[in-house]
Design a protein that fits this description.
alpha/beta; Four Helix Bundle (Hemerythrin (Met), subunit A); 6 domains; five-stranded mixed sheet; 24 strands; elongated
């Protein structure tokens, strides 16, 4: 299979090379105005004939090589031939020879073999013509017809019509196409021709390359329509068509090669100054390019439509050869410039010095060499492979985060060990002071008696002269040694953690750098598809009879290729809408004092981590009253709603499915499918779309999109026991509402931020986690949606983090949900990514009223505000007081899993000290404990100002009503019995955290 593919590719290379050379010779033989080429002009092409013959011999096509040898020899010896009476017969013979060769090339492409008798058939028509004798005597060539002397009357010379067939002597005077390239009928456009079997890997690389050349052709055509004599653009278009043709032949896509060959021929004539790019020619080439695009899709279901379009495009392209520019009136003796048309069109070949003719060739060769060198510096990598690499980097980012969490846990463990060591050192010091040098008398006597028998010398020392140690002394010494050892181990552990933290910082930088570099490989200029928009404006302007110009800026703004691919169709639709609905007719614009030509502006730029695209027109603006009336007529809103419908909401009616302001339904507009799809696509990429319009001035649509769809920066928040990620691009700011800052207006909490009244909604309620009231001091996210800004109250801010966004798949519950994807946090938990646009869809807040708000980074705040910030800026802290280590560990882990920060106290006295020294959102205490029991803890804390309003929950094994009443009478906020269920515990805590988070003294 691989050998067959290799041979097929080689044949394609041969066909492209041979066809290119034969085309040059054919054009030299068929001059315009029926002129006959001079022998000198043909002599210059013998190198081309040599290349054709050599290529055929190299690929094993012997018959074609033999014919090519005759062609090469004839062209080489043409310089010495006479242009007398027999010269037209020679030219006719050469035309037939080239025609035969071109047919054979077509046969080779289709069948991978040449016709075995093609050489014999041609030589039978021209006996005596050989490679050694391409120009035999007239008598031999004309089969015995006697030639007369040049001075004699030419009437005796046989007519050329008697020598060779009519079709050879008098070929079509204008067309440069061979019989094989004549406009094809749909009968010969077979399925295998239009949809050939090609290697998938080859197509993978041919597709992007072909798309680049197609875009170059379209861009150049639009430019030439305004500047038809721009030589650089003409050459650029010619090279793009030539390269696309060659690439198509190489991979075996002959139908594309044949079609673009016509375009190349036409642009070659334009380069020579024989034709010009007119509006009609542009339309014909655009239609042909559309057919090429359809062929590139390789959809079998569209074959019948493509077949008809292909035949029509080929027919129209062939007609371009007959459209001669008025500027192409040149003498019949002008030299064919197929070797270097651009540089040789100014002078006849016979009058041009050889070194002047060689110079352009050298320049072209140098340009081709530099282009090849530039291309060798670039490799093509499939988008799927880049996505896999980027996913791996994303996994690396997650793994790094997980490792960082392990370091944090290790640091916490080290702190706990340090604390334990401190307590042990204190105990050792106390024990040492009591027992190291204070030996009890009974113990000393016993020790002396026990040791005196074996060591009588010690009996000579008194108690102050010799230290004696019993078991207590030895224990004290050993505990001191253990304390020292623990201190050394802790020092080493702290040093290791510090070094690991430094290594983690380096790993983080390397990971981010690698991610950025790989992500940049997916980045493309957003201006790449702008050519399509210019063409869309051109076609819509023609269809509507308007004069419109598209002005673009920011084409070099870089964005992820996935964003560009999904953005093209919405932008095309919006640009077409600007022309159809926005720009007025020329007479209307002139009557309004505007320029006759309307303008659509397309601008792209970076703003932070987002890409902003603006589509603006200088038309008549949106007619809000017409929009309302249309919405009523199609049943989107009720008539009684229109008087009170806010202006901003009326504008957003255009995003509803089925809405259109077109008076008639047609191909260009009026089908009601458009802006709703645009909005859905934009929001599916976590983007937003805004409208600004002024009647009589124009309309501007602003699209805000993330820079990339795979990795983004998000704010992690906690709502209840769940964690969510919100893209930072959707958040305008974060504020911490001080206690009492929210005002109730019509049953809705309103927060005043500067001069803006903002409705605050509970995020938990919006996503269906329960009816959580918005009150107290809580973090509020000011989120941007398509409908405006809304405040979202959350329970806790967990910090900013870079996340790798994964799709949620095709599960039905997620298709219409407010979630735009999922990620994995450093602890390995799945975190849903909220799509704020969908979450806030259809919700607006037009409210006002006095309230207070405190910015997150306020420079000067009151003591109460600072207290509120302290309570809400970090994790919610809970104090757990219990004398049982097992309870502290078990219950503490329950609360930590719910997202709380838990601190513990070992008894009632320790609990009171900690509750007095620091503020806690909730305190949980046992009843039966040493030093101070739970009742005493309750009584003490309720008497102190800083803990008077702090929720205190009792958790005990005493389930009796008597114990419960006693606790409640002392100010307990809740009563739980052991063993406690995790869900019940978290629910009880959540109830009080929501009410008194950040309570002030």
């Amino acid at each position: 299979m691989g050998g067959e593919l290799d041979r097929h590719g080689l044949i394609g290379i041969f066909a492209a090379e041979a066809e290119d050379g034969l085309q040059k010779i054919w054009k030299a033989l068929n001059l315009k105005k029926g002129a006959t080429p001079t022998p000198e002009s043909l002599h210059e092409l013998f190198i081309v004939g040599h290349s054709v013959r050599g290529a055929a011999a190299l690929y094993g096509f012997s018959n074609v090589a033999d014919l090519g040898e005759i062609l090469e020899s004839a062209l080489e010896q043409a310089g010495g031939a006479s242009s007398g009476g027999e010269w037209p017969a020679v030219v006719a013979m050469l035309r037939d020879l080239v025609e035969t060769l071109r047919k054979q090339v077509d046969v080779i492409v289709k069948t991978d073999a040449e016709e075995p008798d093609c050489f014999a058939a041609w030589t039978a028509r021209y006996p005596g013509v050989t490679a050694a004798q391409p120009f035999p005597s007239a008598q031999a060539q004309l089969e015995g017809v006697q030639l007369v002397d040049e001075s004699s009357s030419t009437a005796a010379l046989p007519s050329v019509d008697d020598v060779v067939p009519e079709s050879v002597v008098h070929p079509p005077p204008v067309s440069s196409q061979s019989a094989a390239e004549e406009p094809a009928s749909t009968d010969i456009l077979t399925d295998s021709y239009l949809l050939p079997e090609l290697d998938a890997e080859v197509l993978e690389f041919f597709g992007p390359e072909a798309q680049e050349y197609i875009e170059t052709i379209e861009t150049s055509l639009l430019k030439l329509e305004k500047e038809p004599t721009d030589a650089e653009t003409i050459h650029k278009l010619f090279r793009a068509a030539h390269t696309l043709k060659g690439s198509a032949f190489t991979v075996g896509f002959q139908c594309i090669g044949d079609l673009t060959h016509h375009v190349e021929d036409f642009m070659g004539a334009v380069r020579e100054g024989k034709q010009r790019v007119t509006s009609e020619a542009t339309d014909i080439i655009f239609k042909a390019i559309d057919v090429v695009k359809a062929l590139m899709k390789r959809e079998a279901g569209l074959l019948e439509q493509i077949r008809g379009d292909y035949a029509a495009a080929q027919r129209r392209l062939a007609q371009l050869e007959h459209v001669t520019s008025s500027a192409a009136e040149t003498p019949s003796a002008v030299a064919p410039s197929s070797v270097q048309p651009a540089s040789m069109a100014a002078a006849p070949t016979g009058q041009e010095a050889p070194e002047k003719r060689a110079a352009p060739r050298a320049q072209e060769a140098a340009g081709a060499e530099s282009k090849t060198a530039a291309e060798q510096a670039v490799i093509r990598v499939s988008k799927e492979r880049l996505e896999r690499l980027l996913n791996l980097v994303g996994e690396l980012v997650i793994s790094r985060g997980r490792l960082e969490q392990r370091l944090v846990a290790l640091e916490q463990f080290a702190n706990q060990v340090q604390s334990t060591k401190g307590r042990m050192v204190e105990a050792v010091r106390s024990f040492e002071e009591k027992h190291t040098f204070n030996v009890p008398a009974s113990s000393a006597s016993a020790a002396g008696g026990a040791s005196g028998a074996s060591l009588p010398v010690t009996s000579d020392f008194g108690g102050l002269e010799f230290d004696r140690y019993d078991d207590f002394n030895i224990l004290a010494r050993r505990m001191a040694e253990v304390s020292t050892d623990v201190g050394e181990v802790m020092a080493q552990l702290s040093g290791s953690i510090k070094k690991a933290r430094e290594d983690m910082g380096l790993l983080q930088r390397l990971t981010l750098d690698m991610r950025d570099e790989i992500a940049r490989a997916r980045i493309v200029p957003i201006g790449t598809p702008f050519t399509r928009f210019k063409r869309a404006v051109r076609e819509m302007a023609r269809a509507t009879g308007k004069d419109v110009e598209l002005v673009t800026s920011g084409e070099q703004t870089e964005v992820d290729t996935a964003v560009v691919e999904r953005l093209v169709d919405p932008l095309v639709h919006m640009v077409r809408n600007s022309v159809f609905h926005g720009i007025e007719k020329t007479e209307v614009r002139v009557a309004c004092g505007k320029p006759a030509k309307g303008t659509v502006y397309l601008h792209a730029a970076h703003r932070g981590n987002s890409v902003v695209i603006e589509v603006e027109d200088d038309g008549g603006g949106l007619d809000v009253e017409k929009i309302k009336a249309k919405a009523v007529s199609v049943g989107l809103i009720r008539p009684e709603q229109t008087p009170d419908l806010p202006y901003a909401d009326a504008l957003k009616l255009i995003f509803l499915p089925g809405f259109t302001t077109a008076d008639q339904i047609g191909d260009q507009a009026g089908r009601g499918v458009g802006m709703d799809v645009v909005k859905r696509v934009i929001e599916s990429m976590n983007g937003q779309i805004d409208i600004e319009t002024e009647k009589g001035v124009g309309t501007k649509f602003t699209l805000s999109l993330p820079f990339t769809l795979l990795i983004s920066t998000a704010l992690l928040v906690r709502v209840g026991a769940e964690r969510y990620a919100i893209p930072l691009s959707s958040i305008r700011e974060v504020v911490l509402a001080a206690p009492g800052a929210m005002q109730d207006v019509g049953g809705r909490p309103i927060l005043q931020i500067g001069e803006e009244a903002l409705e605050v909604r509970s995020l938990g309620r919006l996503i269906g986690l329960g009816d959580t009231k918005v009150e107290g001091a809580r973090p509020v996210l000011v989120a941007r949606g398509a409908t405006g800004v809304t405040g979202l109250a959350v329970d806790e801010l967990l910090g900013r983090q870079e996340i790798v966004v994964k799709t949620l798949g095709t599960l039905r519950p997620f298709q219409q949900s407010c979630f735009g994807g999922a990620s994995i946090d450093p602890e390995g938990h799945v975190v849903l990514v909220l799509d704020i646009g969908r979450l806030l869809a259809g919700r607006t807040a037009e409210l006002s009223g006095p309230a207070l708000a405190q910015p997150l980074l306020a420079a000067d705040g009151s003591e109460a505000e600072e207290a509120g910030a302290e309570a809400t800026s970090g994790p919610t802290r809970i104090l757990l007081i219990d004398d049982s280590l097992s309870v502290r560990k078990f219950v503490g882990r329950m609360l930590e899993r719910a997202g709380y920060q838990v601190e513990t106290a070992v008894d009632g006295e320790d609990g009171v000290k900690k509750a007095t020294a620091r503020r806690y959102s909730v305190i949980i205490t046992d009843l039966e404990m040493p030093k101070l029991n739970g009742y005493e803890v309750l009584q003490t804390l309720r008497q102190r100002s800083n803990t008077k309003s702090t929720p205190i929950m009792v958790m005990t094994t005493r389930a009796g009503e008597k114990h419960q009443q006693a606790a409640m009478s002392l100010g307990a906020s809740g009563y739980l019995t052991k063993p406690v269920e995790e869900r019940a515990l978290v629910a009880a805590v959540e109830q009080w955290v929501g009410r008194t988070t950040g309570a002030t003294p």
